[in-house]
Here is the input.
Amino acid sequence: MFLDNILNVPICQPIKKSYEHWHEFMEENIEFWLPDSEWHTKTHCARVLLLALLIGHQKNLSDKEMDALGMAAVFHDSRRLDDGIDKGHGGRAAVYYKEYCRDHDLPYDEQTYYITYYHDQDDSLGLSEIAKSLCLSDRAVLLYQIFKDADALDRFRLGPNALNVNYLRTEEAHGLVDLAKALLRKSSETNV
Ligand SMILES: [Fe+2]
Ligand SMILES: [Fe+2]
Here is the structure.
């Protein structure tokens, strides 16, 4: 399976099962509008999934919060129309997520909706929309920051200088920079 060797390193053990669950869910169920995308592939989403779960575990998130991150990771770039900035793809993916839950009788999580919806927007907008929502707590802010850091850590796929680590939001993400680079090496070696 994708990223098999990396999953066996000690740091990944606690989140291995969860990663495998969400990865399988994505492969079997989620339809991407841009299947030939160069930069926003299912393998990008798989790396973001792994990184989000790692940060979440280190932050001692609950199982429900970990699932909210997992869902956001597998849906977040599924509704892109192009490989550029494509602002609005987060909103389209969030709507896809919401409709998917309704159509498949799955529990819907408002946090996943917001994380997905605003992942392609500036933090200031995402955070103010989260603050306005009556259904969300301060925990949603933390989940949003974790998710944006996980997505940012995979920017090394765009080039060695594509991420300014000073913009990372969580301390844990700083500790995962080398692993994020190793994930990309692994992805290109196995050509997936
Ligand atoms: Fe995105
Ligand atoms: Fe992404």
